[in-house]
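Below is a filled-in request sheet from our internal design queue. Each sheet records the structural input a requester submitted and the sequence that came back. We keep these sheets so that new team members can see what a complete request looks like end to end.

REQUESTER: design group, bay 2
PRIORITY: normal
MODE: inverse folding
CHAIN LENGTH: 240
BACKBONE (tokenized):
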């Protein structure tokens, strides 16, 4: 394995919605694996109160979601994980959108939260990647991004759009191949959030959810990718 380095990636921990067992599992694995590069693929905060429906409707249940607890738990996990690369997901992207809101109080709250995120990245000496269709980090020729598409074939669609890639966003662990001569592979790390998050309690798609993370080796333009998955009501079976 001369010249190869170890990496690890997680995503969708969702602030105060993180599952305590998942949190313990990934931190335990990191301590054993000792990766050279650790990546959080985004949605490290939940930010339910900043959701567009909650902002518009004061009767929306998320309107009262606790921002302080969500921010505290999300930032605490980042400090424990200590990633070298932090990607913003679609949940964090709400903040940058609302920072220019004509609602002064909302804009101020979003700006303060952004400052907390950037201060955390600075303290961790981590790169902070914004959310956008062309935003990703790359190691060993494989792109790491939060993810943008959300459908039953989304992992394959990301591979066809970006080439070899590792994503989060979908809340399910999976591996699919692109339909092209290059044969790129797309992999999804699943989530670290609780299976019983209230907003999704009646959505059929949540039956496919699984927790997990990704890890492997990289050097130059080569990247070896493995997945660890935990389905609902199953124990965590760590690779080492």
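RETURNED SEQUENCE:
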């Amino acid at each position: 394995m001369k010249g190869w380095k170890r990496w690890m990636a997680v995503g969708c921990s969702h602030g105060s919605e993180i599952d305590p067992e998942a949190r313990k599992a990934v931190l335990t694995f990191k301590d054993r694996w000792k990766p050279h590069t650790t990546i959080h693929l985004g949605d490290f905060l939940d930010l339910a109160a900043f959701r567009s429906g909650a902002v518009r409707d004061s009767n929306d249940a998320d309107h009262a979601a606790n921002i302080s607890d969500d921010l505290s738990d999300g930032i605490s996990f980042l400090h424990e994980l200590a990633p070298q690369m932090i990607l913003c997901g679609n949940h964090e992207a709400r903040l940058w959108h609302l920072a220019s809101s004509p609602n002064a109080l909302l804009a101020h709250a979003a700006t303060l939260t952004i400052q907390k995120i950037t201060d955390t990245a600075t303290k961790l000496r981590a790169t902070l990647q914004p959310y956008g269709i062309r935003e990703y980090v790359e190691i060993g020729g494989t792109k790491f991004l939060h993810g943008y598409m959300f459908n039953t074939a989304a992992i394959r669609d990301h591979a066809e759009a970006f080439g070899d890639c590792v994503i989060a966003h979908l809340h399910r662990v999976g591996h699919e191949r692109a339909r092209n001569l290059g044969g790129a592979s797309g992999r999804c790390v699943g989530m670290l959030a609780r299976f019983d998050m209230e907003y999704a309690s009646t959505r059929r798609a949540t039956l496919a959810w699984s927790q997990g993370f990704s890890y492997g080796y990289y050097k130059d333009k080569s990247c070896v990718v493995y997945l660890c998955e935990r389905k609902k009501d199953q124990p965590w079976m760590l690779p080492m």
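SHEET NOTES:
- The chain has a mean pLDDT of 92.
- The radius of gyration is 17 Å.
FILED BY: M.R.
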